Amino acid sequence: MPLYAEDDLNKLCLQSATGSGKTLLMHVNLLQFQHYGKITGMDKKLSKVILLTPNERLSEQHLSEFGQSGLWARKVNNPNQIKEGLFSQIDIFEITKLADQEGPNTIATRSLGDQNLLLVDEGHRGMSGKEEGAWIKRRASLCAKGFTFEYSATFQQAVAAANNQTFENNYARAIFFDYSYRWFYEDGFGKDYQILNLPETFNTTQAIYFTACLLKFYQQLRIYQENVTDFEPFNMEKPLWVFVGSTVSKAKGTNVEKAAAADVAKIILFIADFLENRQKARQRIDEILTGTGQNTGLLDQNNNDIFAGSFTYLAKSMNSGESITNIYQDILCRLFNNPAGGGLELARIKGNSGEIALKAGAAEEPFGLINVGDAKGLCDHIQEISIARDAKLTVGDSDFTEAMFASIRNSASPVHLLIGSKKFIEGWDCWRVSTMGLMHVGKSEGSQIIQLFGRGVRLKGYKWNLKHSGHSFALQRPLFIEELETLNVFGIEANFMEKFRDFLKEEGLPGNERRHIEYIPMNVTYDFGKKLKILRPRRKASDGKEYDFKKDAQVPTVGDIPDYLTQNRVVVDWYPRIQFITPMGANPATLKNTDYFRKRHLALLNYNMLFFELERFKCERSWYNLNITKEGICELLNDSTWYILSIPAAQLNPDGFDGVMLLQQVASALLKSYCEHYYNYKKREYIEPRLELRELKQDDDNLPSDGDRYQLIVDGDEEQVIQHIKQIKKEIEKQIKEDRDYLRKLTDPGDLKACKWRIHLYQPLLHARKGGCN
Predict the structure, then answer these.
(1) Eight-state DSSP code of residue 557
(2) Which of 74, 267, 528, 721 is the most buried (most CB within 10 A)?
(3) What pLDDT is recorded for position 138?
(4) What is the 3-class SS of 547-604, one letter each residue?
């Protein structure tokens, strides 16, 4: 790679996973540039701020989000709207409207100048194809003497697909922030995912495979609707079933268009058959829910049942007496919006929206929507196919003229199924996608697949933390929430799924296609040759249960200052948190200023923010019995007898908003330290007088129960790891029988070890090196 030249320093690129906050980063970068532009005078050298987007819908979305951040933006449709020298305003263009010459729908790139601050959303666009290659040149000309920020989730995939050394060198030097999906996923953000493999015998099991995928989505929809109140703190949205491909068009066109049209026809014909042939549909449902992969033929290449353990919620309903007929009827009601059922109807919405509504019989509301470029061509093609296959469906025009696509993202929408092309992948702001079907996928579409995948795994999370519930601080996780926090992925043809798996591997992500579970027995050593004593809380005479601080003690309340805290004060030293240079030879301790909050400081604090900060801190520590009030916080900060604060005097005299925020941080640190000291003191005060020395017995809560086992969950493709686990199980059984100590490597050296020590209560101990095993 060539060394940096001065001209290379006018572009920064941020690669960040879909749903990780690229838009907010853009707003921050813009404000940073405007702030330092004023300080350095750079704002007077630049003409304007320009945001380039791939399409009109994304432009509208950015316009709305700039408004929410208090930034002045507008869409520009013609050259007459352009004004020079407005560095505080953002002009939004679609990249498709830039051209070499002025036209009715285009703007000449040269008319925008070359001294601009350029923001580029979906910056990977333009690295392939003749037309898109020209976009890169036009982008470059807009900021030849300015500066560029580019944002994308898929620079890596786009550069690899372009196979262009110049692009590779440019982006290798310009990307300074990489938070691609691999890191996003490993940090607990977004949904988990599961790939539902195509069976080897897909051609003969197509109907039952599609039925299983339908059941998988129906189960998600039912879990959501029957437990919607429980999921409210987790901000779950109503599930949406999406089929998407590189293009969805008529049969007369390129090979890709023909293949995609054939895929759509497969889906439509399946739905028509499911609605029309009720007996066959119920029979397939019965086989899936009560049979095995051997019965249904839904086996992968290793003869594993693809849908094993996938329908626990529906199995629970059946165990409660629900019949297959009841389930089919509920599917008609919930998924198809018509308990009476009826034939499938395709109704093309008038206008140029490219939308086709799907309805079941005489339903008042559509259950599905097809969003394509050529709606009429696709309708004609499906009608031809239906006649040739004698399928029971009707194709016509809708009485409605209003487009439906924009409303799908709302959970109130009646639409449960969306079939569309890649045009809604970029910039589609939807949190509902829960089951995804892949249609025709081209060889060079890695970036689009990752974009699509990123849309599917978006999750609001508990209190908007964007993480799935296992990584939240929720006190309790609702049953079956993991089903709603999992994106199910399946395909129409096996080679599409193979490409998708390859893209995940390139990202460094597990396949999550089939989870293999192994159990290792957990043994307890009962005979040490002497009795073991432990300190435990006494048992209450009333119910025989141990004294519990959280349940039995008086509720500790923030604001209370016991003598213990005035004699053992909380110490917060703010000096290590700021840049501090000690003069040569001076003693740092003698230079520290000790101070406290006065009324003028307290008047500047945001007590709501402090309250919620303490509530989060309390949840992180699981201090459920700690009572926090805003009044208690005020009382606490008005009393300085419980803390020692070391902080430069200048920091307690803010001259701007940054200084006020620092006071807020100091107050938060004091309060958190108080809570920790106060809570632990109250716990010791209550528990210590109630402790006793007791003999450890078999029924102690510290000991595993009979039959407790380690559960090891492994990706089904990791055959070597699975074999090593089986090998170590045999070795453990052998060593336990022979009563010998041992240390055994399970995977790569040092990754996972199993140990048996005579002096330990539990046998064996498993140790996984951090970062070595998942």
Answers:
(1) B
(2) 721
(3) 85
(4) CCHHHHCCCCECCCCCHHHHHCCEEEECHHHCCCCCCCCCCHHHHCCEECCCHHHHCC
